Amino acid sequence: MTETLIDHLNIEPIRVGLQAQELTSKIIAKWDNKTKPIGSLGRLEALALQMGLIQQKDVISLKQPQMLVFAGDHGIVDEGVSAYPQAVTAQMVANMLPPKKKKTGGAAINVLAHQHNFNLSVIDAGVATILPEHPQLLQRKIAPSTRNSVLAPAMNELQAMAALHAGMDVMRQMAGNVVAIGELGIGNTSSAALMMSLLTKIPVENCAGRGTGLTDEQMKTKLHALTRAHKRHKNASTPMEVLCAVGGFEIAMMAGAMLQAASDRRIILIDGFIAGAAALVATRMAPASKDYMVFCHVSAEFAHQSMLRAIGVVALMDLGLRLGEGTGALLAWPVLVSSARLLNEMASFESAGVSKKV
Predict the structure, then answer these.
(1) pLDDT confidence of 312, banded at 50, 70, 90?
(2) Short-list 100, 160, 108, CA closest to 135
(3) What is the pLDDT of residue 4?
(4) Per the structure, how many domains does the chain have?
(5) Cα angle value 326/7/311 (rounded, 5°)
(6) CATH number of the domain encompassing residue 34
(7) What angle do CA 250, 106, 77 make, to 5 degrees?
């Protein structure tokens, strides 16, 4: 089933083919002819090259950026893995959705989306509470929470496929050529840690962090639950098997959205640890999808750096964040804008009448 899902997408490595090679040379030459020492803008130059290859041109345009926040609940919270009750997921969704007389909601991601002119959509992937209709809320609920993965698979294969397809469908409806991916859901660091362990073979105790701020005693409880869940599902190895065993509906939807965005040749901004787990799934399903992703920050969540290494990427920033929601992605956005504008607008040696290095 997964093969059929990927087969109809058009996800190709951005550097492959004569056209890509010619464009790479053109963009590098363009950078090298700017009024600066060669390579002096560091990762900004590589970032602009990536964006140019995604868009298949040497003048980058960033249009109608979208912020998608996928929300879902997790049955494993029954094991005491979170410092907050499950009801907080629905409460945070409500906080993100502005009341009628306000222009924006009250969450951190609302502030940043408003600041950077991102269109914000919240997707109900599997929140336990029935959420009221709202113009910014997309109802894609697979079920009211996954099952407790300590006791049973978190979801069945039909639910996992439905979540992947729902994420793809949401992405197809979005305008623009840039999308930021974020999430919220009590218990989702537990799901992400288990997914990371099963997909990378890193011991589960080295994948689990304190999430929303667990005490030492709460952390012991979390590790005990994750160890039991990992033992139950230790034979899960493929992305689909791992999603079914220990995943979250919001994580599966994020993975589907990422795959569709790569097929659409969009620039994909990946937020933190949970979004990273979805990216791990997406890149295992379609390795070329990684070329379309910008990993925006390394979070304070214990295993995020190891997750990034497993994917084979380096994050743009380290601000000690552990909030989620997509906040790290939007904090990184000005770096992408600056990179694009420098490539597009900075003078060349010839146009500025500046002598090159001899």
Answers:
(1) very high
(2) 100
(3) 78
(4) 2
(5) 40
(6) 1.10.1610.10
(7) 35
Q: Residue 272: which pLDDT band, with cuts at 50, 70 and 90?
A: very high
Q: What is the pLDDT of residues 138-175, one digit of tens each?
A: 999 999 999 999 999 999 999 999 999 999 999 999 99
Phi-psi region of 194 (alpha: psi -120 to 50; beta: other; left: phi over 0): alpha
Beta strands in 134-184 (DSSP E): 137-139, 178-184
Q: Residues near 358 by Cβ (< 8 Å), separated by ≥ 6?
A: none
| pTM for the predicted model, two decimal places | 0.96
In a domain, 358, yes or no: no
107 plus 45 within the same structural domain? no
Cβ of 92: how many Cβ atoms within 10 Å?
A: 24
Task: Report d(CA 137, CA 158) in Å as an integer.
Answer: 24
Do 215 and 314 reside in the same domain of the chain? yes
The torsion defined by the Cα of 283, 288, 294 and 298, in degrees rounded to 10, comes to: 30
Using the predicted structure, report yes or no on whether residue 358 has a pLDDT greater than 70: no
- The Cα–Cα gap between 200 and 326 comes to 24
In contact, 204 and 194? CB cutoff 8 Å: yes
Answer yes or no: do 32 and 166 share one domain: no
> C-alpha 91: how far from its chain's center?
22
- According to the model, what pLDDT value does residue 103 have? 85
Instruction: Please list the active-site residues.
Output: 325
